[in-house]
Write a structure and sequence with these properties.
heterodimer; A: alpha+beta; Chemotaxis protein chec; seven-stranded antiparallel beta sheet; 4 helices; B: alpha/beta; five-stranded parallel beta sheet; globular
């Protein structure tokens, strides 16, 4: 049997705390955001506040959904959803923009991708310090007007979600593990 | 990591640095933090992957290289291998800035003359300390 076939698919429960710790570390140290864990009920409440995803230049409430796939001792995907307004705040903190500085959509996509890349890399480094993982470049989607994340209570088995507030705005972070040789996306 | 404990440029001469990362915002962040440090910097060059970095190195005088590992086109590891093949770049100071701080990854680059390995995320003070250290010379981690 090859070493690849012997790789086990972890459960989300095994990694939940490490994922949450990575979100806190990246939010505070790289993006200087105020971060706190949120119960699913609070997350839902914040998502359903009409202003949750408003405040972008177009006046439309939009969410950004970003995924990074990883492959190493195990494989899968990390997926993060956040309001575009929050993504702008994180970008401004990250590179030191002033409140009136213009922001290009390309820059927003880039910094949001970097946020998720750092969360994924930090989690995997802390959780599996002896193993290396390869990460795909972040895929950032600007979701249609009216789209909002729905709380997934099924945090069991090979997938699960943790919820946060960053600068008092809702953020969901999901992980899906996949059997070796299968894509989690 | 590496054994070279000399300062990267003669005392008083501003540094030329090259930042290699596929995220333009990450490059902007590193550049901004470097600019805030109390270290004289002449030029900050940028590249989005290892291949672009080689082009910069072939045309510019660079004292210190700060590179990510996981990048499309040419990874940071491949870039460092290529740099190691060229005698003309033997004095180039090499610093890795990566989210991947695993022992396996560190082992992969241990023979590539890397002077410092910085894990993302890092606080701005880390970059200040690194640049100060590079210009002063002592205490290589």
């Amino acid at each position: 049997m090859s070493s690849q076939n012997s790789r086990q698919v972890p459960t989300f429960a095994e990694h939940r705390d490490a994922v949450a710790a990575a979100v806190v570390e990246v939010s505070e140290n790289s993006f200087f955001a105020f971060v706190a864990p949120a119960e699913p009920d609070l997350f839902s409440e914040l998502v359903n506040i009409p202003s949750a995803a408003e405040g972008d230049a177009s006046g439309e409430g939009r969410w950004l959904r970003t995924s990074v796939s990883f492959d190493g001792a195990f494989n899968g995907v990390v997926e993060v959803a956040m309001p575009e307004r929050l993504a702008r705040e994180l970008l401004a903190s990250f590179v030191g923009l002033g409140p009136d500085d213009p922001v290009e959509q390309e820059e927003l996509v880039d910094s949001t991708g970097e946020f998720v890349n750092q969360v994924c890399g930090t989690w995997l480094t802390r959780a599996c310090h002896h193993r290396r993982f390869d990460l795909t470049p972040p895929a950032v989607e600007r979701m249609p007007v009216g789209w909002a994340p729905v709380v997934d209570e099924g945090s069991a088995g090979e997938r699960g979600w943790v919820y946060f507030t960053l600068n008092d705005q809702p953020v969901s972070v999901g992980v899906r593990f996949a059997p070796f040789g299968e894509s989690a996306t | 990591m590496g054994d070279d404990q000399a300062a990267v440029s003669p005392p008083g001469r501003p540094l030329n640095i090259l930042i290699v990362d596929d995220s333009a915002m990450m490059r902007a962040m590193i550049k901004r933090v470097a600019g805030l440090c109390d270290v004289p910097i002449a030029n900050v060059y940028e590249a989005s992957n290892g291949a672009e970095a080689l082009q910069v190195l072939e045309t510019r005088q660079v004292d210190a290289l700060f590179t990510d590992i996981n990048m499309p086109v040419m990874t940071g590891t491949d870039l460092l291998r290529e740099i190691g093949r060229r005698a003309c770049w033997k004095d180039l100071t090499r610093v890795i800035i990566s989210t991947d701080g695993s022992e396996a990854r560190r082992a992969e680059v241990q023979d590539l003359n890397v002077r410092l390995y910085i894990e993302k995320p890092f606080r701005p003070e880390v970059m200040r300390d690194v640049l100060t250290e590079l210009t002063a010379g002592p205490d290589v981690r």
